[in-house]
């Protein structure tokens, strides 16, 4: 169900160029979300902006639209810094969606894969660079990438970047770029460290707070079960049975836990995949893609790996373990209830964790209702057998998956599986394709068929496209000698 948001406001009231408005309409963006409504006019004027907003509020376009339009007007390069590789790819996808028809080219710079393709993409002087801080600073240190053309910088999910220790890299980036620049900072929460960063590097920013700090998504119904550790899997089994149609994201505190939960779910014949730090970038992308397109109904994730996941139809989030810090609770449940839809978040809480629940309740300014436990299924006596590497890589597609809930297309592609490192390499070389029209669907299950290979990513189009300013661009690239 959609919220009745901002009925009175249209994108055309915000100062966006005619040509850009047409593209937004064509792409289905007709009514700005509250954060877009409040940020776009000031950001188009070149103001520094601090946006306190959760994920799912439309913040990518809130900074993406002004960044693209201001770059078209003033030249230079835009830089978007994000905490995770997944978020980088999703931001790139959003920029591609609205920017490509205007000839905007982006490059993604992330760790975990070869830098070769990224260096090549950077050498082509993209209009926008979307990067994780570690790899970006690495390329700066190697002298491969200079920030001298950067005129607009966005720090997205700044609180998470600081949580994972990226402050030194962020400071280095902000100290390196030219003084005359526009800074846009987005964060779901506003700890002191972020305010300090803003005070040090921004010019009296426009502060837009979409929901009070730490407020959890208002359209997410939240519930708690108090459950002993040993009974969690049985409760999970019961809940997944009850919500058998829901696209479900399950959070585990640890990588090993995520792997174990996913394995158990597959043994129960659920289509489940996993995303955590022990998986290669290629495996993570594949899991995310399979989850997005419905190949897997369930994804098990750790906090870091799950940041930036923008899957529209996640209707249920289960906190199998509570997160280590309460801010992560807000991020986790923000995975559901996106773009005005309703969602549900269920947390498993050990009897000893009441203090942790109180902390979360203080942050979200809400009491979490504790529900009575349903009748739990009997304990499973037989542990699932160890999966083969290929089964696990495919998100679990062993013989059991041919059962009732299988639907796992990877069953058909086992024989095409390549070794992990080769796959990572494959994605590494495809990363620039990804942002210039690469369609993961064409890579389903590993190798593409000959026919599909023939219809792969196309080269530059002859006719060119028009930029916001109406100038003609060639092959998606501006010819301005930049
Ligand atoms: P974000 O918070 O940027 O991750 O966006 C969450 C989702 O909302 C994305 O899938 C966007 O495509 C979608 N979205 C962003 N802005 C709008 C809008 N004005 N109308 C409808 N959907 C939107």
Compact description:
37% of the residues lie in helices and 15% in strands. The protein has helices at residues 18-26, 34-44, 59-74, 85-99, 116-123, 133-141, 158-163, 167-176, 192-201, 232-242, 255-267, 281-292, 303-306, 326-333, 354-364, 389-393, 420-434, 450-454; strands at 49-52, 77-81, 106-109, 128-131, 150-155, 182-187, 206-209, 220-226, 247-251, 272-275, 298-301, 314-319, 343-349, 370-371, 465-466, 472-473. The chain binds adenosine monophosphate.
Shape: globular
CATH fold-level name of the largest domain: Rossmann fold
Bound molecules: adenosine monophosphate
Low-confidence stretches: 1-7, 396-482
Structural class: alpha/beta
Oligomer classification: single chain
User: What is the domain total for the residues?
Assistant: 3
């Amino acid at each position: 169900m959609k919220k009745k948001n901002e009925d009175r406001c249209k994108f055309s009231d915000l100062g966006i160029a005619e040509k850009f408005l047409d593209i937004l309409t064509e792409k289905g963006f007709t009514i700005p979300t509250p954060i877009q409504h409040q940020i776009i006019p000031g950001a188009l004027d070149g103001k520094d902006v601090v946006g306190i907003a959760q994920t799912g509020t439309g913040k990518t376009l809130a900074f993406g639209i002004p960044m693209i339009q201001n770059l078209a007007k003033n030249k230079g390069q835009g830089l978007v810094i994000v905490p995770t590789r997944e978020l980088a790819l999703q931001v790139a996808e959003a920029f591609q969606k609205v920017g490509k028809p205007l000839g905007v080219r982006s490059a993604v710079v992330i760790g975990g894969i070869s830098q070769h393709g990224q260096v090549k993409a950077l050498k082509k002087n993209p209009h926008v660079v979307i990067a994780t801080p570690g790899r970006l600073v690495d390329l700066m240190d190697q002298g491969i990438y200079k920030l001298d053309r950067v005129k607009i910088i966005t720090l997205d999910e700044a609180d998470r970047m600081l949580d994972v220790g990226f402050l030194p890299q962020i400071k280095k980036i902000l100290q390196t770029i030219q003084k005359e620049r526009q800074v846009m900072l987005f964060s779901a929460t506003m700890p002191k460290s972020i305010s300090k960063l803003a005070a040090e590097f921004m010019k009296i920013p426009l502060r837009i707070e979409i929901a009070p700090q730490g407020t959890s998504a208002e359209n997410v119904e939240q519930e708690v079960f108090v459950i002993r550790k040993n009974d969690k899997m049985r409760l999970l089994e019961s809940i997944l049975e009850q919500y058998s149609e829901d696209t479900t994201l399950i959070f585990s505190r640890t990588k090993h836990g995520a792997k174990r939960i996913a394995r158990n779910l597959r043994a129960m014949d659920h289509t489940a995949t996993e995303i955590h730090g022990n998986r290669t970038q290629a495996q993570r992308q594949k899991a995310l893609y399979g989850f997005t397109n419905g190949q897997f109904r369930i994804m098990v994730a750790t906090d870091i790996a799950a940041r930036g996941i923008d899957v529209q139809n996640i209707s249920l989030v289960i906190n199998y373990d509570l997160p280590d810090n309460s801010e992560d609770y807000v991020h986790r449940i923000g995975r559901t209830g996106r773009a005005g839809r309703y969602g549900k978040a269920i947390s498993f809480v050990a009897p000893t964790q009441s203090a942790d629940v109180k902390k979360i309740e203080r942050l979200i300014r809400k009491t979490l209702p504790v529900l009575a436990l349903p009748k739990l299924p009997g304990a499973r006596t037989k542990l699932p057998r160890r999966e083969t590497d290929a089964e696990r890589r495919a998100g679990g597609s062993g013989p059991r998956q041919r059962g009732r809930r299988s639907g796992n297309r990877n069953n058909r592609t086992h024989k095409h599986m390549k070794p992990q490192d080769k796959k990572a390499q494959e994605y590494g070389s495809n990363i620039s394709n990804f942002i210039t029209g690469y369609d993961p669907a064409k890579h389903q299950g590993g190798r593409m068929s000959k026919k599909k290979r023939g219809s792969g990513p196309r080269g530059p189009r002859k006719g060119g496209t028009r930029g916001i300013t109406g100038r003609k661009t060639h092959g998606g690239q501006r010819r301005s000698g930049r």
